[in-house]
Amino acid sequence: MTFTDMLRGAAQANRSMLCVGLDPEPTRFPAGLQGDANKIYDFCAAIVDATADLVIAFKPQIAYFSAHRAEGQLERLMEHMRRAAPQVPIILDAKRGDIGSTAEQYAKEAFERYGADAVTLSPFMGFDSVQPYLQYEGKGAFLLCRTSNPGGDDLQNQRIAGLPGEPRLYEHVARLAQGPWNLNGQLGLVVGATYPHEIARVRELAPTLPLLIPGVGAQGGDAEATVRAGWRADAPIIVSSSRAVLYASAGGDFVAAARREAERTRALLQAARG
Ligand SMILES: O=c1ccn([C@@H]2O[C@H](COP(=O)(O)O)[C@@H](O)[C@H]2O)c(=O)[nH]1
User: Fold this and answer.
1) Mutate which of 144, 189, 242, 243 for ligand 1 pocket (most atoms within 8 A of beta carbon)
2) Which of 100, 134, 176, 245 is the most exposed place for a label (fewest CB within 10 A)?
């Protein structure tokens, strides 16, 4: 089964376009786990178990694990997600980008070591830095296109003078991903929920690609505008929220609170489809 098949299956089964992001920060854990980096697995597994029937995907962000020397816990968590929620695809948010020989190692890390179904990548180093990931049949790769942070303007919004029509860099990335770079239909794009106009533009240029859309919740992105701009019946969007779900409560009820916030966000997104 390919990553895209998994996405469609989870969207349908869970009636969802919500992705729960797993960004474990021990200082924000509830009492009993608080400050303890050895509890990263326990915290994340509890969130996974509470939300697995509500999501289209899970998105662990690798930095939150490696910063705490918790790669072993990430391996266990990936195994747990595959066992407890086999229908839900896992997007490893690693934002890799390097020369081909190094990219081969990063691809091996994402798909063989961690068993991710998809990975996030920076396209900045060009196609040969993306190609090694495409050797893994059925796996997905999301290219950063128009990111959710204000600094995304610095490069992504600049026009490329040498190209016909002087497209903005993010528009060029969207065209490449929809067209010549998408050799086996494995590519998707990352577009921030904080920029709904750009989501709409990316959707115009990349009508069939899955869009990974972080930025609702803690970053204040507009969930309804996001869906109106990006959702198409035949092209999934994966709207990701991390902190708003993970830290919905700092108390002993954090699991129930996370589920409530995931339910609330899922309902908001579904309702916006019109
Ligand atoms: O443009 C981007 C690309 C990736 N991210 C990642 O998504 C989550 C957002 O977390 P929240 O707590 O929901 O704000 C985080 O892992 C980022 O690294 C992004 O925010 N924007």
Assistant:
1) 242
2) 100
* Secondary structure (3-state) at 65: helix
| ipTM exceeding the 0.90 mark | yes
> What CATH number does the domain containing 232 carry?
3.20.20.70
Q: What is the pTM of this model?
A: 0.98
User: Is 190 near ligand 1, meaning CB less than 6 Å away?
Assistant: yes
Q: What is the CA radius of gyration of the chain?
A: 18
Helix axes 196-205, 223-230, angle to 10 degrees: 20
Print the domain residue range for 174: 3-272
Q: Which positions ≥6 away from 37 have C-beta within 8 Å?
A: 26, 68, 69, 70
Does ligand 1 have an atom closer than 6 angstroms to the CB of 194?
no
CA of residue 201 to ligand 1 center, whole Å: 20
pLDDT tier for residue 274 given thresholds of 50, 70 and 90 = confident
Ligand 1 lined by 219 (C-beta under 6 Å): yes
Our count of domains for the chain comes to 1
Is 23 touching ligand 1 by the criterion CB < 6 Å? yes
Active site residues: 95
